[in-house]
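<purpose> Linking amino acid order to shape
<body> The protein record starts here
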Amino acid sequence: MSFIADKQTLEDLNLLSKYRSNSVYSIFNVVHTRGGRKILDEMFDFPLTNVEAINTRSSIFEAFGRLEFLFPLNGQAFEVMEDYLSSAEGKDAMDIFKLKALAFVGLDKEYREIQAGFYETVKLLNIFRDFLYRLDPEAMPAVYWKEIASVKAIFKDYRLAWLLLANGAKDLSGLKIAKYDAVLRFTFREEMKQICSLIYKTDTYMAVGNVGRLSGFAYAKALAKDRYIIRLEGLCHPELKNPVSNDITLSADSNVLFLTGANMAGKSTTMKAFGIAIYLAHMGFPVAATAMEFSVKDGLYTSINVPDNLNLGLSHFYAEVLRVKRVAEEVGDSKNMVVIFDELFKGTNVKDAYDATLSVTKAFSAHRNCAFIISTHIIEVGEALGAVCDNLQFVYLPTVMDGLKPSYTYRLQQGITNDRHGMMIINNERILETIKGTLKQ
């Protein structure tokens, strides 16, 4: 079963955008090859739900991070190699002799391109072979080492014995080029694809592993679904510089985190950090935390920036209701979900928002196989929930006052805050005086 995360969730957490420099995808998009980028895209598009698969992938990333190796091939040069090898599609080995004959009379540009691609490919194949022999089998997870052993066997084939001798050569005869070209592009066509596949994977493993190491991220340990635990230590948002970290634990006995705090106290950032960590952990990627373990979930839903839809005639409130309904359908279908609601029902009046938040949170909390983070400005809801639910944990992000100027610690504390500083901030900015035209310049 595929991990569930819809478009709204991906946008709320800014996960996938390839064209935003501040997206989560952009953090890891330091691959060098087209194939490596395709693998990275697939990993982001399809997080895993199998415990063994997640932990195996994490172990490969972590192993390459420890090695501190740089990708051994030049990306642009490798594209030349890719184009050279793929140019044989639909042709046979005799075509190179025909091109060579035309080249003698200066009539074939394609032969010159093949010649250049051949020399570049020989060089890069030797570089990659040397790289594989530098790897310590004891430092590599078994699943990856099997692929290495398979590719090493290709390089050891007697029909490629000439490869080392041709390395660095620029003056091979036309006959030898034609002979060796036939070996690479025709006789070993499938083997070359296998080598390129390992190059793509290595590119991706190195990119993610090095990002994890350089960023100080941790690798999460995936646990069985029926453990119903999510434990994060030192959690922070991966895009922030010098972030403040927090610890969060959710379990079957305490599966709802009820979060309060003033505007700008950091509620949305904390919830986004949690959601991003959940998503990356299911990909087997390093997360912005010092430690994490989690029971594998079926999916993740967020409701942070729910837009109205004027084309469909939907108000902001009704869009929120539909969003909650969709989550309710997934949770009611016995799926193990992680759900994040930022200020439920903020599109309606306070009385309705109070009643709806109380009822919906109480109903959701009964699904102890799921994990919820719910924030609100209506702190009275927390007191009512505490009287009827025994599986909620109440935390808040405090505001520290320096006279009339608020500041924020961004550190979670136990309890429910009574901070209400909206009018204070409005007064500090002297908005009413500006409206009345009495603000002194």
